[in-house]
Amino acid sequence: MKKVHNFNAGxxxxxxxxxxxxxxALTDFAGTGMSVIEVSHRSKEWExxxxxxxxxxxxxxxxxENYKVLFLGGGASMQFCMVPFNLMxxxxxxxxxxxxxxxxxxxxxxxxxxxxxxxxxxxIYSYIPKGYEIPKDADxxxxxxxxxIYGTEIKxxxxxxxxxxxxxSSDIMSRPVNIKKYGLIYGGAQKNVGPAGVTFVIVREDLLxxxxxxxxxxLDYRTHIPEGSMFNTPPVFSIFVMKExxxxxxxxxxxxxxxxxxxxxxxxxxxxxxRNSMFVGTAAKEDRSLMNVCFVMTEPYKDKEEDFMKxxxxxxxxxxxxxxxxxxxxxxxxxxxxxxxxxxxxxxxxEFEKLNK
Length: 357
Fold this sequence. Notes:
The protein is α/β, with parallel strands linked by helices. Helix content is 34%, strand content 17%. The strands form 4 sheets. Strands 2-10-9-8-5-3-4 form a 7-stranded mixed beta sheet, with helices on both faces. A 3-stranded antiparallel beta sheet has the order 11-12-14, with helices on one face.
């Protein structure tokens, strides 16, 4: 198989053993003689998979019993409306730190008074706003912990005077999280915890059932809780790969080990960006993401951007082109991205500098 270094932002690199187990399950799932994409989701074999997947979520994140874990469809984008549908009675507060946070805020405006407490749009979302005030009369405060397009991240569990809601699509399972500080956490799986097609939701159950509006059946979290995320047919293959990915996270030592692993990888790449005369990081140093490293060419070498892209591609680098809205480069270095790939990219940058200075 062709050797590549996968830096795609999502869908992205997954643990190789999770991929290999999924390939086996496509042929014969749990000794049933059927593929995992053929077996009934009501079978005892599949119910065991759902139970194991939820148990891994609870173990790795130390999720308390009064929080429910759901596996739904629709991506994080569906949660942009499901959250206010279920939790916003009159007013909600939002921190705008990037495109996805902005889209979540837009949806909330359709359900009541949505307040933007702060934004970093003035500097192309290159930093996390600080010193803002969260309105104490808000039903909840919504944050996006990691911003894939701009490479900034909230790397701690903040205190909030109101219920804290977090979109953790691209940094869940990358570090320990104090679940008790949040009322609800959600995200698309296709970064750290599996392939596209399944959305995780962790919600404190006592928050539900308090809004007076009608909630469509499929958009009501209370529909899915008693059914174990199987009110309708779940995205079985995505959940299976998610389970295998979480088994790998556990095998690697859990979330404290993942955090150290991710900090070390990010330091390797950021140190080279700061050292190399041809590149410069775009995110404020104190807010740099451990998941998405964004950088551009320095001013004297702006015309070399396409040359570097070609140079890197020839050396097996995949997915380092920056998002179309910001340009430059982006290396997404999620949990399963190996240190060897980081080292290969660093060597590539060093070699390009020597050849072009």
